[in-house]
């Protein structure tokens, strides 16, 4: 039977008095890719950030690998070691080299052996074709290179789940393809479990096992990937795909 990595039940999220997410329910199994799609402001980033404990939630339950997550910050801190996240803004430490950015959490937070992690980091850097930049600083890299490093940094923690929040949104078009190729390989070759927020519809159509289409903080439809792009169930999703020139 498929192993369930994450399950969300009846999740409500408020910013002050205003409700940003309404009764969110879904689950993701090991090796699956879920993409969150929807118009601007529909709550995609809010949802993915909540799944990493970066946003608190008022009601609902999150289960990680079958275990109910206590929504206190300490529990999330521990869990975040198993959940890798990559942001639109890279969030690399500017005063650390590429290698030190990658080594920091596995050695300091996970307490792993530095030499062992360094070897692994070099192999990952090879994979994203950036080994020669191991001693560079983030400011010396292009946006696309920084984003590939941010992915490597998350992978070095050996995550059970990877979250990608619009990771190509700040990149020049020629940089986008290299980053998306790496994410696709993580799915095809490593069978990484991933939740992806993206505005790249062609990419989403290629990678998604399941699409959650959000509007106004609600999941309007949950559909297998191919079916969503061929035959969306709702008029709103069809309009959305049209508006994205898909
Ligand atoms: N920190 C915050 N405080 C108050 N409101 C917020 C905050 N962050 C987001 N919002 C609001 O929550 C709603 C959902 O925002 P969110 O960024 O999750 O949408 P999104 O679907 O990711 O949009 P986009 O595609 O434009 O990134 C929006 O109305 C936004 O203005």
TrEMBL record:
Domain ABC transporter as annotated: residue spans: 6-241
Superkingdom as given in the UniProt entry: Bacteria
InterPro entries named among the record's database cross-references: AAA+_ATPase, ABC_ATPase_HisP-typ, ABC_transporter-like_ATP-bd, ABC_transporter-like_CS, MetN_ABC_transporter-like, P-loop_NTPase
Molecular-function GO terms, alphabetical: ABC-type amino acid transporter activity; ATP binding; ATP hydrolysis activity
Keyword Transport: yes
Coiled coil location: none
Keywords: ATP-binding, Nucleotide-binding, Transport
Database matches in SMART domains: AAA
Transmembrane segments: none
UniProt similarity note: Belongs to the ABC transporter superfamily.
Protein name: ABC superfamily ATP binding cassette transporter, ABC protein
Organism (species): Limosilactobacillus panis DSM 6035
């Amino acid at each position: 039977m498929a192993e369930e990595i994450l399950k969300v039940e009846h999740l409500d999220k408020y910013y002050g008095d205003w409700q940003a997410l309404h009764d969110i329910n879904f689950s993701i199994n090991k090796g699956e890719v879920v993409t969150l799609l929807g118009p601007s402001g529909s709550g995609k980033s809010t949802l993915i950030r909540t799944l990493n404990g970066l946003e608190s939630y008022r009601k609902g339950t999150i289960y990680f690998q079958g275990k109910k997550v206590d929504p206190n910050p300490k529990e999330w801190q521990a869990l975040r070691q198993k959940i890798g996240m990559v942001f639109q803004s890279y969030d690399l430490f500017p005063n650390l080299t590429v290698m030190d950015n990658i080594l920091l959490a596995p050695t300091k937070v996970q307490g792993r052996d530095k030499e062992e992690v360094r070897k692994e980091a070099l192999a990952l850097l090879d994979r994203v074709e950036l080994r020669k930049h191991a001693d560079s600083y983030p400011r010396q890299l292009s946006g696309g290179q920084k984003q590939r490093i941010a992915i490597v940094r998350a992978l070095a923690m050996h995550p059970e789940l990877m979250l990608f929040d619009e990771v190509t949104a700040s990149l020049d078009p020629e940089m986008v393809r290299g980053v998306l190729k790496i994410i696709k390989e993580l799915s095809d070759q490593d069978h990484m479990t991933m939740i992806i927020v993206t505005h790249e519809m062609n990419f989403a159509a290629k990678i998604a096992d399941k699409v959650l289409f959000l509007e106004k903080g609600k999941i309007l439809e949950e559909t297998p990937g191919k079916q969503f792009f061929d035959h969306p169930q709702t008029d709103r999703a069809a309009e959305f795909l049209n508006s994205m020139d898909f």
